[in-house]
């Protein structure tokens, strides 16, 4: 039977995993911003995680923190719970994509492995959650996803939305109002070097949508020929 860890431990490990997808190590400042916790509290917790047996993180003062293999296992198990729950809430219970993250945060720490397996079976053992994030498989392998940001596209390029950062519910609601969901195909029509705004047209629509860098940095795409 899987050892039940505290919600706080799972949240920390999940945050470190997410940050170190793009950075070599997670800093105290990054973790404080991600978890909305004071830096002093962050330091105390990661010191605790690094000294328990087995250690879940590797911590070096002033150099940040990384996950140990055991810590990564816990982080991926938590992410699997979270993203399966998000998809279940969205596809089966009809939650909009901007509400599933908060609900899944509450539930991810308490469901059993048996319940997780049944959710996965009902959903057809999916690879992606409602925002396009990869769902770790039962063996904790992680499907590959695009890391190309919309902000990197140039005028004339066509692309399709494959993933959206799910940490800001207001962003998700705004994108929904614009009709920008997963699998939306569009073409870049203009780029402003002055303010880094990107102008796009959704396929089969005439209107132009102008998006600032605060939005285009949080949308991931697959470029089309």
If you had to describe this structure to a student in words, what would you say it looks like?
This protein has 225 residues and is of the alpha+beta class. Helices cover 40% and strands 17% of the residues. Strands 3-8-4-5-6-7 form a 6-stranded antiparallel β-sheet. A two-stranded antiparallel sheet has the order 1-2. Helix 2 (28-35) packs across helix 3 (39-51) and helix 4 crosses helix 6. The mean pLDDT is 94.
Lateral strand order in the biggest sheet: 3-8-4-5-6-7
Count of helices? 8
Average pLDDT: 94
Please state the overall shape, judged from the principal axes of the Cα atoms.
Answer: globular
Count of extended strands: 8
Q: In which range does the helix fraction lie?
A: 40-55%
The amount of beta strand, in percent, is 15-25%
Radius of gyration: 19 Å
Biggest sheet, open or closed, and with what strands and sense? 6 strands, antiparallel
